[in-house]
Amino acid sequence: MYTHTQRLQYQASPDRSDPVYAAKLQELIGGQYGEITVMMQYLFQGWNCRLPGKYKDMLHDIGTEEIGHVEMLATMVARLMEGAPLDSPGHDEVSDPTVAAVIGGMDVQSAIVAGAGGRAVDSRGNLWNSGFITSSGNLMADFHSNANAEMQGRLQATRLYNMTDDPGVREMLAFLIARDHMHQNQWLAAIEQLKTDGIEDLPVPSAFPLERETAEVGYQFITFSDGEASTQGRWAGGAAPDGTGELSAVPGPHPVDGVPGPPLSDPRLFATTTPDLELPGSRVGADAETER
Amino acid sequence: MYTHTQRLQYQASPDRSDPVYAAKLQELIGGQYGEITVMMQYLFQGWNCRLPGKYKDMLHDIGTEEIGHVEMLATMVARLMEGAPLDSPGHDEVSDPTVAAVIGGMDVQSAIVAGAGGRAVDSRGNLWNSGFITSSGNLMADFHSNANAEMQGRLQATRLYNMTDDPGVREMLAFLIARDHMHQNQWLAAIEQLKTDGIEDLPVPSAFPLERETAEVGYQFITFSDGEASTQGRWAGGAAPDGTGELSAVPGPHPVDGVPGPPLSDPRLFATTTPDLELPGSRVGADAETER
Amino acid sequence: MYTHTQRLQYQASPDRSDPVYAAKLQELIGGQYGEITVMMQYLFQGWNCRLPGKYKDMLHDIGTEEIGHVEMLATMVARLMEGAPLDSPGHDEVSDPTVAAVIGGMDVQSAIVAGAGGRAVDSRGNLWNSGFITSSGNLMADFHSNANAEMQGRLQATRLYNMTDDPGVREMLAFLIARDHMHQNQWLAAIEQLKTDGIEDLPVPSAFPLERETAEVGYQFITFSDGEASTQGRWAGGAAPDGTGELSAVPGPHPVDGVPGPPLSDPRLFATTTPDLELPGSRVGADAETER
Amino acid sequence: MYTHTQRLQYQASPDRSDPVYAAKLQELIGGQYGEITVMMQYLFQGWNCRLPGKYKDMLHDIGTEEIGHVEMLATMVARLMEGAPLDSPGHDEVSDPTVAAVIGGMDVQSAIVAGAGGRAVDSRGNLWNSGFITSSGNLMADFHSNANAEMQGRLQATRLYNMTDDPGVREMLAFLIARDHMHQNQWLAAIEQLKTDGIEDLPVPSAFPLERETAEVGYQFITFSDGEASTQGRWAGGAAPDGTGELSAVPGPHPVDGVPGPPLSDPRLFATTTPDLELPGSRVGADAETER
Amino acid sequence: MYTHTQRLQYQASPDRSDPVYAAKLQELIGGQYGEITVMMQYLFQGWNCRLPGKYKDMLHDIGTEEIGHVEMLATMVARLMEGAPLDSPGHDEVSDPTVAAVIGGMDVQSAIVAGAGGRAVDSRGNLWNSGFITSSGNLMADFHSNANAEMQGRLQATRLYNMTDDPGVREMLAFLIARDHMHQNQWLAAIEQLKTDGIEDLPVPSAFPLERETAEVGYQFITFSDGEASTQGRWAGGAAPDGTGELSAVPGPHPVDGVPGPPLSDPRLFATTTPDLELPGSRVGADAETER
Amino acid sequence: MYTHTQRLQYQASPDRSDPVYAAKLQELIGGQYGEITVMMQYLFQGWNCRLPGKYKDMLHDIGTEEIGHVEMLATMVARLMEGAPLDSPGHDEVSDPTVAAVIGGMDVQSAIVAGAGGRAVDSRGNLWNSGFITSSGNLMADFHSNANAEMQGRLQATRLYNMTDDPGVREMLAFLIARDHMHQNQWLAAIEQLKTDGIEDLPVPSAFPLERETAEVGYQFITFSDGEASTQGRWAGGAAPDGTGELSAVPGPHPVDGVPGPPLSDPRLFATTTPDLELPGSRVGADAETER
Questions:
Q1: Under an 8 A CB cutoff, do D144 and C151 touch?
Q2: In A92-117, which positions are buried (b, 16+ CB within 10 angstroms) versus exposed (e)?
């Protein structure tokens, strides 16, 4: 259960309005790696966590923090939208190139739909959707997903930092960039902790018996492109990062013999086929052609 | 530029048809972490890579391999769909519980739309979309994304391995699981290579000056939930994984003072507000209230 | 069954072209609350209505009217797009800020994809989708949805009215705004009619027995935020709008005792868990721990 | 800023597992009118609210409560998924019709993707997206949207109540149904409060001057279908609910004279047209044909 | 402008209910090639048509007919949903395999969300979206799109015809299949008419000067796969269907010389690159390396 | 299985950067009819093709070629993005209208998310999704879909050709336009080949017995709009293109007699209905009202 204080985790006041920048900043709210994504990702991981104790608690901590980050950004966007031009160049001659740039670059939908407020969309106006989040139940996989999310998020925040000189905006971004920095550390540390605790290891999932794999290709780097340099990387030789095998480079791809025959076709579905490929029954019989 | 051989990278023949399993296997084709996702992710990373040489070549290698994995899975799904029941329980009494399970669990849209072939959708029939892929231009961030994708992918493949006893299906999955294993190794090794080469380091992006961050929160684990255990983790103390700072635990969140005032409102947008909050102009002036 | 006359319900001629405004006007065609939404919402409510007579007839009336509103807007957009600049600032120096604003603010996809015609998208180019419509079968719920749709629609239309001075555009919008005004009245009147006819009442659905609810929280306003003022509203005291209970304010949230234990985990799914949380069987037994 | 307690607002324990019901219950988490929708809708309305005081505070209260409702439902779904069958009818003969029904009706993606946890999707597996939420800045419009959301939500919850006999599930639903009941009251009371406070009135937006509308159609119910009964409703006569005009019924639609001519076409876009409809320039000139 | 009669274009009454078939039939309402798609496609083509006369009139005719087809199907689906089982196999033992099949195969969301009515979704519950429609302004291209839509639609309808024996359902489908048959004829005839009238020809768009193309590859069939047979087709020799050139087969793909260098990178975006690839300025200068 | 050469099929180098044009060119990568669409469409048609030999081989050829077209475009977009302005008009006064146009018209998300690289989105930033592709299993239907895709694609490419004067961009487009020209020929020739080979004919699917259709409406053009001219087209008279029937024009639509009654309603779903419309049982009985 959650509670709220009206005070923010950090101030969110621009020195001046900037509707074009407001549109860009939406990426950090409703983009693929925006704060809604990490908020929802950590909340669902926390709710679904099957391991009581420090991992589940930690997921609750960070998921709850991220709700407040969305709040800070939505507050900032609404302030940056103040005074956005509503006029149309079809009627009103535009004499100032700065105004022209704002007319072209601002989020008109924010004005029409949201009264110039923050929205759950990205910098191009795409709707946020839950295909952006990951919650698999396997903590080793998910912590890597989380580390990636914080890296992409910090990367975008630093790009946005470079796109403005507004001291108020930069101050808030400096705070969020620092938190993304900490959260990168947090997930990488959590990966180490999982290994230290003997709970999960590489490869993910570590409980799947390695002998069930097709053994010979589990450590092979295979080339499929004519680039000459790729076999010179760390990934093509030496001890594997999973601590078990030895990496090797295998030039050229090696297809199996034989071209696969087409699947059989139920005539009631009117797929185009040849008469001698009729469906033999509801299941492939023992006497079906072996090359199929 | 790409070329194709009609031979597969590995065989893709089930021992018998199984339309319910075909629907499940679609997750590995068109799901969030299916083969279309990794194929498109690596192709775009390769095309956009600004670092000629072994990294770009390697991205081309693996991206090209993944196209063939989609091919193998699509071939398998079409064969598993052979003989799928087309009848309707509204008219045809079903006497066999196995048939009942198949009627309920198969992908009817595959029959109606695709003539019982493989499709670019997941196991619930959701369309694949490009919000599933990541290509940021920053290789350290993207390699973490790639490692996560291979972990989620292998996790799903092992779950699906446990959902069938079909030797042909298991043989193909054993191959794909081994490749996902290698690819986890590959991306983790590539992360090490980036550090060794001095190209990128943590935190991402490493070229952003740390002194621009809000320094005091870059290494703090802050609790936002009443769980007692979360400060006992590796993430709340000791040297930070980025190799620079020292992690610490900070109990309780600490909001800034003051409640943020509302953003100003343009009366032409008819947002509900009070008269004394009228918009002062197109930009916040020097004499605007400081607490805003 | 439907028929069509080529005459419009109202004129749709701008005085001059205005490609930037055309892009904005798309919100009224294909936006969340555009005319496609109300057209499809009322058509489906009409087709699904299980109450023959005046309600079903009325739904058919208004649903059919709305098809013609989409037609008017699509006609207007195509005319506003006339003469949209196709040149690129990469080659052609732009000397007129008005042209610069148009280049930045127009819908380039309309030109590339639709030959400068109206499209089933919103003002940011998002595709219309059927998640924007509601048709529940319960008329009391749906009429509130309809009232809201007309309010949001009129709100957006008045905002757009304020974004242009074009007499032709304003004349068409004045007509649509008046119809939205009528339709707000229509749905609010229909809500009254449902009550008068004794068909549906509040709370929705009124046929669900109130004694099945958790009685004590059905009329409580509970605070979850530290704002001081919220208990002073009409919603925190006095007779409830449903005509049955008495509203009250309850400060502070009150969680139930005990922290929920984690769900049990099937080891074949490789979720991270502890050994003593193995799955006991396909259903939770009578002797399972009671705190779970 | 938000904080979290690990205790739930209400218990969320089924008496037994039920994977088919778990799939259905997802509608209340990630559906169009699920708890994620109301949570995100109220949070954004609260953050964007430009009216400090009781309205903004109240939005923060209810938005924060709804986060905890998602938590309760996610907890319940994970428990209902316990022991879900993972086997495939392609290999394993199913002898029990109950098992057949579960195989067909459960959410296989929950197992494959989420380790049998709750997810941000609806009962058919569609991703939640932000097109489900409304935050316009106009409180009168938005409170009607909120009332509708609580009506649709309670309607769905009561339908789901009727789809199970599980005492634990019903107990949690009885709590949520009661809260939806309260929240219907809350928003209807808030609508009254807005009128009482003189802040907003009907029609929405009430600040738009009525004289700008096309006056004669603002109170007319017009028939577009041959249903005979629709003019007998409350919406076709009597005082309008907005308190200003008088409703009337106008039989038959009345198109304006003249068929609209086609929009002009830029030949560089290759739209099919006739030679005499060439584009006269970048803007429609004064001498353009008046009937266009 | 549109009007409606409550009588259907054709009867839509099943002989008995069949909820599983109702779910399948949704494909014809809200699927990629369902009736909503052709309705919206033809309506937008008609509204945007820049050629007054028989083509525009014909588009209005067929677009209006299709609205009534959605109506027929929505009516049918609601009737097929009558008596759908609402019980849950988690509590109620299922003894009848027919009931088990229905529980697994029906659209539970129709019951929960729509009160068992027709919906604007496909057979897997995916939302209809406007990415399914085409309206380019070029009639030759669009009429081919329309012919395809009618072919896919009739194909799906015949597949669904084969999935039921219900005389009432089959009667309605026989009507729709006949109309799809006519509409295939209609669009193919309209393509001929465009050529006869000298308005458009092949290739689309025929007004683009052929001499602007890279001449040598406009009639070449080039092989990119090791299949042996593809050069034996009509597409690899003989007069081209556009009536202008001569088709030929060109074995093997032929890449251009040289590997493309990477794009230059703005350091403020933190893309991973090498120091000597710094961005030279806002536009590529005359002295930029020629191989780039 | 696929392999890659780092050489492109054709050069992809602009003479100068042009970020606004880069955003437009994205339509050819990730739009509804972009190269990802045809690539994925042909790959899936090839994988699912049930007819071994020249058709399947040809699908593999063209599908593989299209992967390389995406590569060329992604390469071009990244180069056009070089030097895109990152500054914000909120702080930096813009004095050059050309720069203003670029600020408004470029894809800011490309910079923020992709480090200024090509992306799998269209010209408005919409995500590519698999609802853009068609693979039905019926080659006659799918080849018409393919012909349409190449027509729409060439149409968009010629429009984009007209939107730039950059020699390098035009050279690449001239190549792609020529390939689209060939591919139009290819699919139209393949349609002829299917007829010549006696594999498929019109109407699609040709194997469905014509006598099962409602015979009288299979060749009727019926008017639903008051346009006068539509019966003068080729589609309203003469031999049908399917080679079987004779087309005719039938003025005015002809609904069937009787208004359909409402579907019955399960009271547990709380749909609004009248008491005498209670549900008679799980299936419509023999004594149900005949007019229903």
A1: yes
A2: eebebbbbbbbbbbbbbbbbbbbbbb
Which among F48, F78, F117 is the nearest to B117, CB-wise? F48
Contact D47, A30 (CB under 8 A): no
Q: Which of E102, E164, E262 sits opposite B49 (nearest CB)?
A: E262
Q: Provide φ and ψ at A236, rounded to 5°.
A: -115, 15
In the block, residue with structure tokens 């993304």: A180
Q: Which residue matches tokens 């749909």?
A: F271
What would the two tokens of residue A216 be?
């010979």
Q: Of F162, F268, F269, which has the smallest distance from its Cβ to D268's Cβ?
A: F162
Average pLDDT over residues B169-175: 98
| Nearest-Cα residue of chain B relative to residue C228 | B259
What ipTM, to 2 d.p.?
0.94
Domains of chain B with bracketed CATH: 19-86+99-196 (1.20.1260.10), 210-251 (no CATH)
Chain C, residues 73-92, CB within 8 A of chain B, namely none
**Which of B224, B272, B289 to substitute to test the interface with A, most A CBs within 10 Å?**
B224
Beta bridge partners of F129: B129
Return the amino acid letter for B273.
T
Q: Are F1 and A263 a contacting pair at CB < 8 A?
A: no
CB atoms within 10 A of CB B276: 5
User: Is the pLDDT confidence value at C99 over 80?
Assistant: yes
Q: Which amino acid, one-letter code, is at D212?
A: R
Please tell me the predicted confidence (pLDDT) of residue F91.
72
Show residues of chain A in contact with B186, CB under 8 Å. 221, 235
What length does chain C have? 292
The residue of chain F nearest to residue B81, with distances taken between CA atoms, is F48
D182-209 burial, b if ≥16 CB within 10 A, otherwise e?
Answer: bbbbbbbbbbbbbeeeebbebbbbbebe
Alpha-carbon distance F261 to F151, whole Å?
Answer: 45
Tell whether the model's pLDDT for residue E190 goes beyond 70.
Answer: yes
Residue numbers of chain D with a pLDDT score lower than 70: 275-292
Contact (CB, 8 A) for B266 and A86: yes
Q: Which residues of D touch C65 (CB under 8 A)?
A: 222, 224, 253
> With an 8 Å Cβ cutoff, is D145 touching chain C?
yes
D238-239 vs D246-250, strand pairing mode: antiparallel
Out of A10, A79, A258, closest to residue B256 by CB: A10
Q: F273 in helix, strand or coil? A: strand
pTM given for the model: 0.95
Task: Read off the pLDDT of residues F42-98 as tens digits, 9 standing for 90 and up.
Answer: 999 999 999 999 999 999 999 999 999 999 999 999 999 999 999 888 877 899 999
User: Taking CB atoms and an 8 Å limit, are E134 and F115 in contact across chains?
Assistant: no
Query: Which of A129, A128, A16, A6 is closest to A72 using CA atoms?
Result: A6
Q: How high is the pLDDT of residue F198?
A: 95
Please, which pLDDT band fits residue A92 given cuts at 50, 70 and 90? Answer: confident
Higher pLDDT, residue B229 or D261: B229
Lowest mean pLDDT among B261-270, E125-134, F105-114: B261-270
CA distance linking residue D279 with residue D252, whole number of Å: 37
| DSSP secondary structure string for all residues of B183-249 | HHHHHHHHHHHHHHTTS--SSSSTTS-GGGS-GGGTTEEE--B--SSGGGSGGGSEE-TTSS-EEEE
User: What's the gap in Å between the CA of D162 and the closest CA on chain F?
Assistant: 6
Q: Does E158 touch chain A (CB under 8 A)?
A: yes
Test C5 with F32 for CB contact under 8 angstroms: no
B151 contacts B184 by C-beta, under 8 angstroms: yes
F-facing residues of B in 38-57 (CB < 8 A) are: 40, 43-44, 47-48, 50, 57
